[in-house]
Amino acid sequence: MASNPATNVAQIPATGRNVITIASGKGGVGKTWFAITLAHTLARAGRKVLLFDGDLGLANVDIQLGLLPERDLGSVITGKRTLEQCVTPVEETGFSVLAGRSGSGSLALLPPQRLTALRDQLLEMSGSYDHVLVDLGAGVDRTVQALTPSMGVALVVVTDEPTSLTDAYAFIKLTIADRPKADIRIVVNLADSTAHGRKTYETLTKACRSFLKFEPPLAGIIRRDSKVPDCIRHQTAMLTRHPNCDAAVDIEKLARPLLESR
Ligand SMILES: Nc1ncnc2c1ncn2[C@@H]1O[C@H](COP(=O)(O)OP(=O)(O)OP(=O)(O)O)[C@@H](O)[C@H]1O
Ligand SMILES: [Mg+2]
Predict the structure, then answer these.
(1) Atom of ligand 1 nearest to the CA of 250
(2) Is the CB of 32 under 6 A from ligand 1?
(3) Would the pTM count as exceeding 0.70?
């Protein structure tokens, strides 16, 4: 596999087939909430799941779950702890979290080699789990690219907003330039209806087909649901607070093929 000259990403070991990366390009489209709920769904199905907060400088996973982790990625970066030592098991949800540290400039501005080392440690750890989910930050910058593992599935979350579609397209373009065989799948979030979500998917794939000669499949459509902000406000996982709401049902459906492939 070639290295990415833009990010200076070195070759990585052939592990990490069970990694699910959650990206979007545009911020605020629901990546973190989706990553938490997908991790929870997989854990409820009996899988051993780790959720890595890859939004390094603006960590949100612990906030959305109302956690106060004693250890986070900050101490991995400073060399005080290993990645394994920073895993926080979340009893309520049945999955574990590797928390970032919000407002940590040192995490947000890590040099490429440190980012690559972090990603490689994560890939090594992936052997101890059934699924490792990586909640990426917004943007398509070098941090996001360097933390996008070359193996596994990349779920790109989009909404019907033109800025979301454009930024998702940019993420896909950059990813397949580096890894033409990347397993990229689309998640349409905040859909007013399933039919509307399908239209959003078709708009994005039309651009991918025309300009990239690449057609990412649809992983699933998640409906807009007022229970989502309610859970976030209460810092409680959706499957704990509203396990049968529309958005939870949509994520359970989306998770089925992921459960079958492993
Ligand atoms: N299906 C949905 N229905 C209703 N609201 C939603 C849905 N998905 C996400 N939201 C809302 O979108 C907002 C952003 O969610 P979240 O923080 O998970 O996004 P993000 O993509 O991780 O953002 P960032 O790029 O800043 O990390 C939240 O306030 C949440 O309530
Ligand atoms: Mg987020």
Answers:
(1) 1
(2) yes
(3) yes
